[in-house]
Amino acid sequence: MKRLAWTAALVLGACATPQQVAETQARGDRLLAKTLAGRTPGKPENCIPTGFIDGPQIVGDSLVYRQTGKRLWRTQVRDRCPFLRDDQIVVSILYGAQVCRNDRFRLIDRGSQIPSGDCTFGEFVPYDKVG
Q: What's the distance, Cα to Cα, between the start and end of the chain in Å?
C-alpha cells in the first residue's frame, strides 16, 4: 500500500498545468530563436555525418548539432517523443557513420536515469551564419 501511495504521489507531482506547459514551450522557443539568430536555414537533408559534429543539444522542441565551422544542424523530433526536455541525455542508436531521418534515439532522465521509449529524428536542416 505504501508503494502505491508513493507511486501516486510521483505521478501527480509530475503532472504539469497548462500554464506550466505553455511557459516551458515559450522558454524553449526563445532559446531556439537565440541559438539560430543570425543564421539562415538551408535545404533539409535526410542524413548528416557524425564525424565533425558535436551534440545533440536539446533546444526547445528540437535537437541541435554543431558542426565544425559556422554550421548548425536542427532536427525536430517526430511526434512520438512529446516530452523532450533540455535536462535529458540523448542516446542515439547509430547504424553507421551518419545519423539519419527516422533513426531512433532515447532520452534518459538525469535524475532517475530511466530511459524513454524510442524516439525518431526528423529531417536535418542546416543553419549557416549570414555574412
A: 64
Contact 92, 54 (CB under 8 A): no
Task: With 0.70 as the threshold, say if the pTM is over it.
Answer: yes
Q: What angle do CA 95, 88, 85 make, to 5 degrees?
A: 110
**Model confidence pLDDT, tens digit, residues 17-73:** 888 778 878 888 899 999 999 999 999 999 998 888 888 998 888 999 998 778 999
Give the 3-state secondary structure of the chain: CHHHHHHHHHHHHHCCCHHHHHHHHHHHHHHHHHHHCCEEECCCECEEECCCEEEEEEECCEEEEEECCCCEEEEECCCCCCCCCCCEEEEECCCCCEEECCCEEEEEECCCCCECCCEECCCEEEEEECC
C-beta of residue 63 within 8 angstroms of C-beta of residue 121: yes
